[in-house]
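Can't paste images in this forum, so I'm doing it all in text. The chain is below; anyone willing to post the predicted structure tokens underneath?
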Amino acid sequence: MQGMLEERPPDDREIAVDAVPEAAPDGGLPWARRPLAVARPERARAGFSAWRDPATWMIATCVFGAYLVISLYRLFQLTPSSWDLGIFTEYVKQYANLRAPVVDVRGPGFNLLGDHFQVIVALIAPFFRVFPSPATLLVAQALLTAVSVFPVAAAGAERLGPGAGRAIGFAYGFSWGLQQMINFDFHEIAFAVPLLAFSLSALVRGRTRAAVLWALPLVAVKEDQGFTVAAIGVVMAIAGARGWRFGAGPAPGATPGEATAGERGRGRPGTTPGLFLVWWGLSWSLLEIGVIIPHFSATHRYAYWNLGGVVGGGPAFSAGGVLAQFGHAYPVKLETVALLLLPTAFIALGSPVAAIAVPSIVLRFIATNDYYWGTMWHYNATVMPILFLAAIEVMARWRAGDEARWRTVPPARQAPPWWQSARAGASRHGAAMMAAIAVALAFQYPLSGLWHGQTYEIGKHAVADEAAMAVVPDGATVTTTLNLLAPLAARTDTFWVGNDHNPNTEYVVFDGPNSGYSPAVTNVPAFVQQQLYPKAGYQVIFQADGVFVFKR
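Text version of the structure:
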């Protein structure tokens, strides 16, 4: 990685790009007489702040509104992607009521801290106490995503100019990885997205202390985030040891000798803070995986080791086994990597900051669960802020280096090497390319649902589900199908009908057409009364459109 980060050019004089150089004898212009990387950089307004910029606020508001609509209408239509919204609704409800996080949705008496270490989600509890609904979690997730736009746009504006910062903020806010997270209902990883955005935004602007402070809480999001924190520390430590500076060069629009708001306080990443983050991240991940989660688990072990294959105690461990496991289903994994890099037009590959995404990707690709390998679900959301901020870092460095080269290279008539021309085009037009890619991909991912009428339709079956749930009183115990878990978990002690060893709850709410059983249950009363709970004595007290409520 030697030379990947260049020192800031010693000469900060403004480049006079408006002057037309003398024509070469053949009628062409000597390329070294004009800026190789960029035309005149967009001049930053004095004191520009993304938090005070109306355009950035508009982008963040659109991100919040679009994602909230997508997730809320999935809730209204009772078509969840999985049981996670129900799990986290009961998890937050327990904290809101100052109780241990026992989540019966996950299993009778199941303490969720024995599954994952996601204590940061408890921050939603005070709001849930006021608004006890799964919608509270969805609002929080959309808000966290929208807030993460500001540090990305701020870094882009400081290093590349306000216009580029806004374009990159737009492309990031509507990137497909974030869309898939929103489409997944709710997940604790929503807290990692803004924390990573703030931390890495500070890092690429040379604000080491802020980068460290924003990275520290990541260990409370999930047990694997400690490895990402350690990766931030490794990049920071190497940069400090080698004397690298991220985003080298003056901010766009800076006058000769002027210290802009972005330049003040900017320094090289420190080796000591980086090593501290490595220790902090690895220590917490190992503590959570090896001690805390097994302590709260009924089996006293970390269940997800089973997905590690040769790494998790299955077949005998070997380097060849790890490589074979990593390369298994490589077409799917290569497609995922390509799609991860596409939103930044592959520019992020030029920055060592992109290496921070490696631990999470490697852990996913080594796992034997094929859900982790692809582009569905929420697993790619945390990669988005990493790669977009990596792209900002390398574009700023390319611009600075090319401006310095233009000052020092003697006039010549030959054309620049192709790679310099490509790099110059990427540094100049990269932000616009990212915005264009985001617009194009919007037609392939959940955002496209916003302009389809069926997104907003609440069918009669959902109305029947709502009527059935209304029969169940607050505080009751109830067993139900997956699509009704979240609404009922907000106000009852809820069990999923698909779990074993459920108790005989006071009520059973069974949505026949959406039960998840295959083949579909056609005679719901017979199935519940004779097969599921033959000795419980359940009687039908409500029926509408294939939805039944039983009372014991």
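The CA atoms of residues 294 and 301 lie 4 Å apart. The chain has two domains: 50-254+263-409+416-451, 461-551.
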